[in-house]
Amino acid sequence: MSEPFAKCSEANPQIAALNTLRQVFGYESFRGPQEAIIQQLLAGGDALVIMPTGGGKSLCYQIPALLREGCAIVVSPLIALMQDQVEALEQLGVRAAYLNSTLSPEASNAIETAWLNDQLDLLYVAPERLLQPRMLELLEQLTPALFAIDEAHCVSQWGHDFREDYLLLSTLHERFPAVPRIALTATADGRTRQEIAQRLKLEDAEHFIASFDRPNISYRIALKDNPRSQLLRFLRDEQQNNAGIVYCLSRKRVEETARWLQTQGFNALPYHAGLPAHTREEHQRQFLRNDGVIIVATIAFGMGIDKPDVRFVAHLDLPKTVEAYYQETGRAGRDGEPADAWLVYGLQDVIMLRQMLQQSQGTDRHKQEEQHRLNAMLGLCEITTCRRQTLLGYFGETLPEPCGNCDNCLNPVETWDGTEAAQMALSAVYRTGQRFGVNHLIDVLRGTENDKIFQNDHHHLPTFGVGQALDAKRWRSVFRQLVARGYLSVDMARFGALVLQHSAREVLRGEVTVALRQDPKTRRGNQTTKTVLPEHIDIALWEALRDCRRRLAEDQGIPPYIVFHDRTLQEICSLRPKTIEEFAAISGVGERKCAKYAEAFLAVVAQVE
Ligand code: ADP
Ligand code: ZN
Question: Which ligand has the nearest atom to the CA of 399?
Answer without folding.
Answer: 2
